[in-house]
Amino acid sequence: MKFKTQDIAGMLGGTVEGDANAEIWTLCKIEEGTPGGISFLANPKYTHYIYDTQATAVVVSNEFTPEHPIPTTLIRVKDPYLAFASLLEAYGKMQQQSLQGVSSLAFVSPTATMGDGCYVGEFAVIADGAKIGKNVKIFPQTYVGNGATVGDDTILYAGVKIYGGMSIGNRCILHSGCVVGADGFGFAPKPDGTWDKIPQIGNVVVEDDVEIGANTCIDRSTMGSTVVHKNAKIDNLCQVAHNVVIGNNTAMASQSGVAGSSKIGSNCILAGQVGIVGHIEVGDRVTIAAQSGVTNDVPSDSVVLGSPATDARKQKRNMVIMRNLDKIEARIRELEKKLK
Fold first, then answer.
1. Per-residue pLDDT band at 314 (split at 50, 70, 90)
2. How far is residue 263's CA from residue 282's CA, in Å, rounded to a whole number?
3. Which residues, including other chains, have CB under 8 Å from residue 183's CB and lie 6 or more apart?
4. What is the pLDDT of residues 224-275, one digit of tens each?
5. Of 7, 176, 222, 340, which alpha carbon lies 20 to 30 A from 160's?
């Protein structure tokens, strides 16, 4: 499908500088631009590519001032990064609109219900009593367990596993290998040194507009619910344990883990490889730096760093001291000799 640059500019709320009737049919990187492609410029490091890109159009900011002639049409917007993100989203939806119907190689229980416009791929299984909303895309080899619910416009990519009784909201995206509803890690030690399994009888509630990365696991609660609130974004290879609560708009980067019964507030950022112990609370608008280990409650509006995680400013000063620890030790030894 082809679009004119003026149509794209209208969708983005931008203005055209150049050929308003130029035709666009694909998206591309600015350094790998091709005729018929549209790209964007947001990072100044890539500015030099705009002077020789082969892309037909480039989305730039209103403030961009070229230093040399530009061979391409510009679409000026307030924020080129967000504008191009909306283009990518629209492009993805166009591609998936053609996916409809149930493959003859899929299994859908006669007691399951499914809304209009759904797609179910090969070897997917929708078990007894499952409820699937409208326009849901269920890719091959995905499993939706007994009594599970999946909201409208949600995408379950290949190999997603949703255990019975779990609840997935509207407009969610679950990537390949994601598991929602496996048992929480609950075991009680016995006198003979073995372990007694504690039954996990709760569920997982994933609210609307949540995205969960590939091979991420969200465990069912012992009782009650493990909850991922609206618009949370969880990266690949993360672990959310039983009875954890993740707040609205919180982002959790790859290889992070939250132990059982901890609560993460809204609008938080957990950078890569963050570990959070169980039974603590992290307030709202907290940023936790990469590879930090959080062992105590964190108040709202904090930035923490290190393991154990403490105030980032103090921790940075401590790191400077640690880098010079050998010199400090030598000075102390010298002073001790003089005192003797």
1. confident
2. 6
3. 200, 219, 220, 242
4. 999 999 999 999 999 999 999 999 999 999 999 999 999 999 999 999 999 9
5. 222
238 within 8 A of 256, measured Cβ to Cβ:
yes
- Residue 333 phi, psi dihedral angles, 5° rounding: -60, -40
Answer whether 205's CB lies under 8 Å from 151's CB.
Answer: no
- The band of 67, judged by pLDDT with boundaries at 50, 70 and 90, is very high
Does the annotation mark 242 as catalytic? yes
Tokens of 331: 């000075």
What is the residue whose two structure tokens read 């000026």? Answer: 76
b/e map 90-108, b = 16+ CB within 10 Å:
eeeeeeeeebeebeeebeb
Query: Which position has the token pair 């209208």?
Result: 10
- What was the pLDDT predicted at 180? 98
